[in-house]
């Protein structure tokens, strides 16, 4: 559903600004929401490990 008209654009702007202000994720697509949900589920199952891109690519070769 794509909003149209001045009121819809104002609402969209308000929601986006509020999300940024309160540090709440703002996801606008179903694909993005699904990716976020999968990431949250994965993070709950195992701790997040921070690695450099070089380290990551060295392990997949």
TrEMBL record:
Residues 1-61 form the MGS-like domain. InterPro entries: MGS-like_dom (IPR011607), MGS-like_dom_sf (IPR036914). This is MGS-like domain-containing protein. It comes from Desulfobacca acetoxidans.
């Amino acid at each position: 559903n794509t909003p149209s008209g001045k009121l819809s654009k104002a609402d969209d702007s308000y929601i986006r600004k509020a999300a940024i202000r309160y540090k709440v994720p703002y996801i606008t697509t179903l694909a993005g929401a699904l990716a976020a949900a999968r990431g949250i589920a994965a993070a709950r199952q195992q701790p997040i490990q921070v690695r450099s891109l070089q380290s990551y690519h060295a392990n997949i070769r």
